[in-house]
Amino acid sequence: MTEETTGGRATLEAEGLRKVFRDFWKRPRTVAVDGVSLRAGPGEVIGLLGPNGSGKSTTIKMILGLLQPSAGRVRLFGLDPSSPAARARLGYLPELSNLHKFLTPRETLAYYAGLFGMPASIRRDRTAALLRRVGLDGRAADRPVGEFSKGMARRVGLAQALLNDPELVILDEPTSGLDPVGRREVKDLVRELGAEGRTVLLSSHLLAEAEDVCTRVAILVDGRVRAEGRLADLLERRDRVRFTAAGLPDGRAEAFRRELEAAGATSVEVDRPALTLENYFLEILRRTRAEEAAEEAK
Amino acid sequence: MIRRVAAHFVLGLRAPWRSRLVAALLVLLAATVLVLPAHLHSDGTPAGELRMLLTWTLGPAMAILAAASLWAGCAAISPEVWDRRYASAAVTPARPFEAWLGRWLGLVAIDAALLAAVLLGVGAQVAWRVPAAATAVRARLAADPDAFEAEVRRVYRDIFPDGAPDGHEAGVLASIRRDLAGEAYLPVAPGRARAWGFLLPDPAPEEAELRFQFMSSYGSLQGAKGALAVSADGRAVAEIPVTNDDPGFVSATLPASALRGARRLAVEFRNGESADGGASVLLRQSDSLRVLVPAGGLAANLLRAFLALLAPLALLAALGAALGCAFSFPVAAFLATAVVTMALASGGTAFRDSFAGESHHHGEARVETRLDRATRRFSLGASAVLRESTAPIDRTEALDRLGDGIAVDARAAFLALLLDGLALPLLLGLLGGLALRARCREMP
Fold this sequence. Notes:
The complex is a heterodimer.
Chain A: E1 12-22, E2 28-40, E3 45-49, H1 56-64, E4 71-76, H2 84-87, E5 90-93, H3 105-115, H4 120-133, H5 150-161, E6 168-172, H6 180-195, E7 199-204, H7 207-213, E8 216-221, E9 224-230, H8 231-235, H9 252-262, H10 277-297
Parallel strand pairs in A: 3-7, 3-8, 5-6, 6-7
Antiparallel strand pairs in A: 1-2, 1-4, 8-9
Helix pairs in contact in A: 3-4
Chain B: H1 2-18, H2 21-39, H3 46-82, H4 86-90, H5 96-129, E1 138-140, H6 145-159, H7 169-181, E2 186-188, E3 193-199, E4 208-213, E5 215-216, E6 226-232, E7 235-242, E8 249-254, H8 256-259, E9 264-271, E10 281-283, E11 289-294, H9 298-326, H10 329-346, H11 349-353, E12 360-361, E13 364-365, H12 370-389, H13 391-396, H14 398-404, H15 410-440
Antiparallel strand pairs in B: 1-11, 2-10, 3-9, 4-8, 4-11, 5-10, 6-7, 6-9, 12-13
């Protein structure tokens, strides 16, 4: 990721990050991250992908200042990540939303709003708007978080991550525990955040979801970046061309395939594209809700 | 900063309340204040009833509050760091010290509310069970520093009638001053005397009660014999006999007419035992003789006691919260309890004396090694630090004074609250904040 791709105004700069975990006697035990560099600017949605144990969360924690890098440096908005000025512009959703179980969502957001120094009047309006946005307005807003399902608790965490209207949002496994509807809502939210000009760093091991929302990705394996770049560039298969058409009469598809082979194409496949299971599921849900609404209207 | 601290303060209030810690404490304290007195029996006198209600209920109540403050402090932040809940708060602009401060203030607010409820409950019981006259509070007259110095010189003359060897007078006088100001009981041999001086307030009090406590060197077998000579501005006021029948305690009321217009009160006890086999009388200069004057009612004294008793609770909460910033809850609780135990033990004379001087092993003089010396110096040093840091609280003697109907000194109470209830906790908070900051930088 270069300065040209970020337009020269980097929100997040991480260079040569390395983290070695040591035992009590300071002997090196594990190299969790080795030479990771990242750069992201406004409007970018960066996916940090990798299998379990690849160093994604460790990298994120170094970016947040929750772990001291063994080597390398991090700058957020040109500032040290542990500085209050940088943290005031940052939103973070941890992998595990360990919220205070005895607080309601409203109280949770009020607590974090206080930590951001938000005045009471702004705090009330912002809390109400965010609870609406994540679908936790109404009675749910005043129930203890300890009574929530994992997905509902995750929504509270998401609201908390957006509380201070952050310029940089870091989401660690944001859809963890959410149902398909919730996952779609989170993905839509992430796209909105990017469209609003915010920088989003998203860590996930669910590749399909990252593919849906990210503009750029970095793939970590064993603590090192093995591939990075714009998603379109990484995934494009230059050796193949796909045509998609509607309204083609039966039989013409086979004729079209023979024409392509006559023109010199090889490994020609003609089939009908499929919906993703997620889209199909959501379509069924939409139809069901519409039918129920129509029944009630009668 | 205020909003960030306030956010932590509100959480510090909510957590103990919603975890039902406060409810459990209310039940325990209610049992202590309301149920326990029903099962205790005093000596039947109003003063005894007052002492039972104020000392024997407040003592256990304070112990419960102290333990709760210490361990609630340990649990204020530590579990959040341990289960990584604190990570979300750590990446906000709030500083670690602000987290400590807010949580500590929350605990102190709960302590203050519970302590106030306990004192109100006890006060209500006293008002119900003890006649008003018996609840009148008395204050101790302040010691006259000139009289103290005169007594130092008199003891010096008794020991060295012809003066100390050359160059040793200052050292001997300093040693006598330390002994007289200290906690040890010093003997007054037959025929010898011990004197006290007090400053009378202006206007002079309506009455003054003289209380003299003593021990005979022969224990309870013989008692003591002598007389207390009381004078005001050099005028003889009263001569109070002390006889072998007196059980280590003599009390007398000094007439107001004798005190009117006077500025200084002097009391001298002379041991009237025979020089040939008579018992010495053991006295402590600081409190064997007290002159008490009326000083308001119980309500004001309970208020002063509230300030004095809140200080140690605030300090314990601060200690727990600071250790909780650095360690997991079980380790913090263990360390906090160990420090408190050492602090309590450091006040004991025997504890200090066991570290002083050479150690002997069944009559053999054991040569002290370098490790012995280092250990002893460290133990004495740690003991001294703990003792001195909690000295302001000790000086208020809140529970003892309440039970004895003596005024808790307002200045001492305020000083204890300022030093041990605020300054020392803030210092612990700074250390806790540093520890929390270090932990937040290595949050795996």
